[in-house]
Write a structure and sequence with these properties.
two-stranded antiparallel sheet; alpha+beta; 3 helices; 42% helix
Length: 71
């Protein structure tokens, strides 16, 4: 599934389509994106080339995960 999806995403990008990809994978971001956004608490924290945004993300302080709630 992943290989087929990645091939389709790459084909769409090559055609000049605009895609929104949500990922925590630096490798995927570098492969697929020409521009990246970093959100922090729902607010835009950084925007620009993937390597610049990744640098900002990696330099940001880690935050503890919110406690899970039972459904």
């Amino acid at each position: 599934f992943f290989e087929r999806s990645a091939a389709r995403v790459s084909a769409l990008a090559a055609q000049g389509s605009t895609l929104v990809v949500v990922t925590h994978s630096a490798e995927q971001l570098r492969k697929l994106a020409t521009r990246a956004l970093l959100l922090d608490g729902g607010l835009l924290a950084a925007e620009g080339p993937p390597d610049d945004v990744l640098e900002r993300y990696l330099a940001s302080p880690a935050r503890p995960l919110a406690p899970r709630t039972e459904l």
